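2024-03-11 09:14:02 DEBUG pipeline.ingest accepted 1 chain
2024-03-11 09:14:02 DEBUG pipeline.ingest length=206
2024-03-11 09:14:03 DEBUG pipeline.predict start
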Amino acid sequence: MNFTALDFETANRSRSSVCSVGVVEVTNGIITNEYYSLINPVQRFDSINCSIHGIYEKDVQSAPTFSEYWPALKEQLENKVVIAHNASFDMGVLRASLDAMYGSYPTIDYGCSYILAKKAFPSLHSYRLSSIADMLNIPLKHHQALDDARASAKIVLEIGSREEVTTIEELHNKMGVTSGRIYPGGYRAASGARKRVSTKRSSFYR
């Protein structure tokens, strides 16, 4: 299974206020590379956001801005399958940040570990990243971007293993999930509206 997991943290309610990013590359079902950077959003930091992720304005004074960091991030994401937990947020952050710098969108197909977890574990009371990580015994410092990306990757790998598939495309098809896509000029949201192809219940319930 090959994909790249992504997580952003933001300084305030604006989705263009990226203050950190975590990226985890998975190759043949193994985590092979991890990247983390603080980002200077050149925007105010709201106290509620700081209380969630623990990043403050003083921490990013020497960090690159999003436009400065984008070439490296683009290389990590473009033409890859990207996974995020609640991907609508992270892909919205990416689009808003590119819009703010008047940059064109790359072509990225993406999936959502939140949507996949809802399909795989339909009886859970919560699908927060921390709840699923706890259930699967995945270590997590929640709202630390690299930890969140790593946990999202491990959740998808675990679901893939339980469903006995070897690619994200197979996993999406089996779970009845439609991948999302951003591309130059537009985007399409990921969806879990389709029914599962197989009626076999996940091995979690066997």
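2024-03-11 09:14:41 DEBUG pipeline.report The first strand starts at residue 3 and ends at 10.
2024-03-11 09:14:41 DEBUG pipeline.predict end
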